[in-house]
Amino acid sequence: MPAVPIGIGWAAVGAGVGVLVRLASVWLARGEKLEAGRRRWQAYGPVLVTALLFGLFGWRIGASPVLLIRSLWLAVLVQVIFFDLEHQLILDRVLLPAALAAAVLSVFTPNLGLVASLLTGIVTGLIFLAIAMLGSVVFRAEAMGFGDVKFSVFMGLILGPRPTFNAVVMGLVLAGVVAIGLVLLQLRTMRDSIPYGPFLAAGAVVALFLLGGA
């Protein structure tokens, strides 16, 4: 089947998944005693972004079991991006079941496997934990939240060694560029922090796309 029709059809599926992601995020926010935002980017962003990403991945990968696995991770990553932007929080109630699913599905993911998945997740998490603890000692402030640490484990589980490294580099570079831009525009100061989760998740999306069906 041609790639373009698959991409268009999967984009429609992605729109429906995006609606579910938004509804789930609203429900999760209420569970955390948080007020769900009503701005357009908060309400419609997950739907539009999920539809776009599903369409791109459907076009790139084609109809296959790998597309289903990658699409599941896309839904999780979109939830993390928008929820963290809105509430500066990455929820264990999202990450823990997603991590368990990642470990199970690694067995069926080409060029990954359970051992590589688990080792990458553990090593990535330990590195991020060390960075978070070092930042707290050196700067006497939270350099990186523990939600980011736990999210880094999930990244390692779904990507494997090299793609995880690439995703982290892309995410940190993107975070740095955005932070500098906000300072130059005088929207933030050098003392202000930004959530790393959305940028790391964006790096993971790019890494997944580059992997394609491999």
Uncertain runs are: none
Helix content: over 70%
For the sheet with most strands, the description reads:
none
Order of helices and strands: HHHHHHHH
Number-wise, the strands total 0
Mind explaining what this structure looks like?
- This protein is an all-alpha fold and 214 residues long.
- The chain has one domain (3-211).
- It contains 8 helices and no strands.
- The protein has helices at 3-31, 40-61, 65-87, 92-105, 114-139, 146-159, 161-184, 197-211.
- Helix 3 (65-87) packs antiparallel against helix 4 (92-105).
- The longest helix is centred in the first third of the chain and has 29 residues, at 3-31.
- The two termini are 19 Å apart.
Give short descriptive properties of this protein.
mainly alpha, 8 helices, 0% strand, 214 residues, single chain, 78% helix
Quick rundown:
Helices cover 78% and strands 0% of the residues.
